[in-house]
Structure formats: C-alpha cells, structure tokens
Design a protein that fits this description.
Chain lengths: ~200, ~200
C-alpha cells in the first residue's frame, strides 16, 4: 500500500516578521498566538492518527484512494493505490475545484459547499471540506456505494477536524524545525538551479 | 500556505503568477519548464480554452532537491488574466505563499495593469493577509515591444507601496525569449523562503 504522510507548518505572511524580530524568544511565542501570526506543526502522534483515519476510511468504504489536502493544494497525506504517479497534480486540481466551488457558493449567497461529488463511468470522486483548512478526497469505483462514502466521510472529517484543532494549538518557530542555516543553503540551491 | 513535512522532511511552497490577460504569465511557466532540468521539473499542466487562453490555471511543480535534509518543492501557478475570470483568480490565489505580478509594458495596457494590481490587493486582503507584508515581486514583461513604457513610468504607477513592505523588487523581462524569467523566479523564491 502506498503511504505518504505530511506534517505541516503553516504560516501567515503577516506573522513572518516575527522571525526577523530581535525580540527575546519568549516574546516570539506570545506573538505567534495571534491568529494572524500562527505557525502550525502536526506532531508525530497526530500524524499517526491521520494515517489511521485514512486507512480506516479506505478499508471501510473499499475506496481506491484517499487524499488529505491543504486548501492551497498541497498533499498532506495520501493512502491507497500505490501506482498513482499523479498525486501532486491531483492535489492542485482538486483544491482548485473546491476553491472554485466556494466562489460559486458566494455568488449564490451560500456560506460554502462543504461536499462535492464528481461522477464518472468507472471512478467517482467525493470531496469534503474540513474546517475551512483541509480537504478530504475519496476516489472510489462503482463497487462502493456513494451513501456509504458520505456517512463514513462525515465520521472521518469529524476525527480530522479534531486533529486540525489540536494542530492549531501547536506553535513552534521555523528555526526549531529547519535549523538556522536553512535559509542560506536554500538561497544557494535556488541560485544553482534556477538559471538559463 | 507553506507546508513543511517534518516526518518526510519535505517543504512545499505555492507561488502564483498574477496580472492582466495576455501579459505573459503562461509564457513564464512555459519557459521555466523548457529550461529546468528534467529531474527538477514535473509536468506542466494547463487548463486552457481551445484558443490557448488560460481558463483556470497553469501548474508547474519544481523539485529543488534536498536542502539541509529537506526535500524542497515549489508549485508555480498562473491565474487566468481576463477580466471575466475574477472569481477564478480568487480560487487560484487561495493559500499562495508569494506572487509574481506580471505587468505588460505596453502603453495601452497600463490601466489594465493598475486595475489588476488593485484587484490583487483586494484578493489578498480578503484572505486575511496583510497586503503590505505579502511577498510580491514585479515583472515588467514585453520589454522588447516598440514603444514600451519606460521603467520609471511603470514604477510610478505600479511600484508605489511605501516602505517597509515596498517598493517591491522588479525585473525587466521578455518572457517569450526568457529574458528576466529566472531572475524573477529566484527573487520570489528567496522572498518566500525568507518569510517561511
């Protein structure tokens, strides 16, 4: 079985100056508590819960593949068919679909569409929103009933919303994760790779 | 929003090329796709109309390899520039870490440039991000067109953000031949990484 799990740190650019600040480190933590300035990390134990949740969803529904995405289209976790080579593009397109449907909802004066269903001849895609931040996507074929997918996805999104909520409570500075010399090394790599 | 995958040691960043229609956003990605090594680039995915105008977005994943133990990936997107796709641009901009604003240097395009930049400011602010802090790089494209506006004139109308957020870095470019394309990409990449 293909397994890929992503732990995330999300940032809001409004808070990036926190890392440039000359403030003592204990003050940085205080600044990071501001919702505008939040960094988030999924700790290892939460990664385990995400994996468990996606695996259970596949086993219980008989789906082919399950993806957990951030709303920007980045793949946080993926379980299922190990032959899929198109996960990155799938993530971008599904997140785009969802973002597009959100704009449709606004035009219709709906808050948002929390679920989307795309029906094909062989494969179907069911997409559910988790707390405005993550997107759960289930790819399944005609061997699986949509009703079952809907019910079990609801359960999974509730579980994952719990994970997301705990993740939001986590605050950690970038340098704690990447190391202080990361930026210099990154700039060298960019100079080396991005050239005619 | 940038994702840092601590378990798998991966970093993902989203960069969006924004600007008026026919300004050269897709040409930027096409040139990058032709120049970056096969190992570093993914497939260029384009959702376009029959006449090759961008309908939803272009998407190009770039893999910079390992930096300080972290596999680093940049996901480049373009928005459709035509006025009627305003809501689609909102959708693509969702979760972006940085923006390249591709301005068209032609004199008769100045008003479109200004309108598009104003719209970008509104759309970023709608995402609860501070526009003045958001990572943005300007690209003055089509510098080879006869009668192109002088850079100082473009600066006067487009690069007006006061310090500390502005003025932005800006680059002269000819996207079809590659002039300035990688300078722009390097600048926005470094800016995004610096604010991670």
């Amino acid at each position: 079985m293909y397994r890929r799990t992503t732990v995330l740190v999300c940032y809001n650019c409004g808070g990036n100056n926190v890392f440039e600040s000359q403030e003592p480190s204990h003050n940085k933590v205080g600044l990071l508590m501001d919702p505008q300035l939040t960094s988030q990390i999924v700790p290892t134990e939460e990664v385990g819960l995400i994996e468990e949740c996606l695996t259970r969803l596949i086993e219980d529904t008989g789906a082919n593949h399950v993806l957990l995405l951030d709303k920007s289209g980045q793949v946080i976790a993926s379980q299922g068919d190990g032959n899929r080579q198109d996960i990155t593009a799938l993530g971008a397109l599904i997140a785009g679909t969802f973002a597009s449907s959100r704009e449709v909802a606004k035009l219709l004066r709906e808050k948002d569409f929390r679920m989307l269903f795309q029906q094909g001849v062989h494969d179907n895609v069911f997409i559910a929103l988790i707390e405005e931040q993550w997107i759960l996507c289930i790819i399944f074929n005609k061997g699986t009933h949509i009703g079952l997918v809907k019910v079990l996805t609801k359960k999974a999104t509730d579980d994952l919303a719990g994970v997301l909520e705990r993740v939001r409570q986590q605050h950690k500075a970038r340098d704690d994760v990447l190391g202080s010399s990361f930026r210099t090394s990154m700039e060298d790599t960019i100079d080396l790779l991005f050239r005619d | 929003m940038a994702l840092i995958n601590v378990a798998a040691r991966e970093i993902h960043c989203k960069i969006v090329y924004y600007g008026p229609g026919m300004g050269g956003k897709t040409s930027n990605l096409q040139y990058i796709h032709t120049q970056v090594s096969k190992e570093a680039r993914g497939e260029l995915l384009s959702i376009a109309t029959e006449t090759e105008r961008t309908l939803f977005f272009d998407f190009l994943p770039l893999d910079l390899g390992k930096v300080r133990g972290f596999q680093t990936r940049f996901h480049l997107y373009t928005v459709p520039g035509q006025v009627l796709y305003e809501r689609t641009r909102v959708a693509v901009l969702n979760g972006a870490d940085g923006v390249v604003f591709v301005a068209d240097s032609q004199k008769h395009k100045l008003e479109e440039n200004i309108k598009s930049l104003r719209e970008l400011a509104v759309n970023i602010t709608k995402q609860n991000k501070k526009f003045q802090d958001f990572p943005i790089v300007l690209q003055y494209n089509k510098r080879d067109v006869p009668g192109a506006l002088m850079v100082k004139d473009l600066d006067r109308f487009l690069n007006t953000l006061p310090p500390p957020g502005g003025p932005w870095q800006r680059f002269e470019a000819v996207a079809t031949t590659g002039v300035g394309i990688f300078d722009t990409l390097k600048a926005i990449s470094k800016l995004v990484i610096s604010k991670l």
